[in-house]
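<instruction>
Derive structure tokens from the sequence
<entry> Chain with its tokenised backbone below:
===
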Amino acid sequence: MVQSLRSKFKEVAHIVPVRSADGKFLHEVLKEVIFGLEKIGYKVVCVVTDNNKINRKAMEHFDLSSPTCSSSETRFVYEHPCDPARPLFFVIDPVHILKCIRNNWLNQSNDQRCFFFFSRWIQNTQPSGAC
């Protein structure tokens, strides 16, 4: 999906069958889409994904193509494939992050369904008996 930062413009750029996708394949498709968009005048600023392992692997391949970068750490800024002087940002969609937090919270082994870290703060600000 291509989306403008300044207007309401949105358009599907490419559809990838999930069964056949791996990090390297998705990286190649992503590079193709970025090159195509830049060629027709768009300026690609960032790639927004959920926190899926395949999506992270696809972005890590931008690291591997740069000789100055180490692939051992997660990064959020990469060298732009069309213009090395510009950054290409990697953004994990906050809605998916909140969904992961919620799912992990619901799958906790404590039967009170309270976050352990925030439980003291919540108990001090909520009426007695509330989580």
Remarks:
- The chain is about 35% helix and 15% strand.
- The longest strand covers residues 87-92.
- The first helix runs from residue 23 to 39.
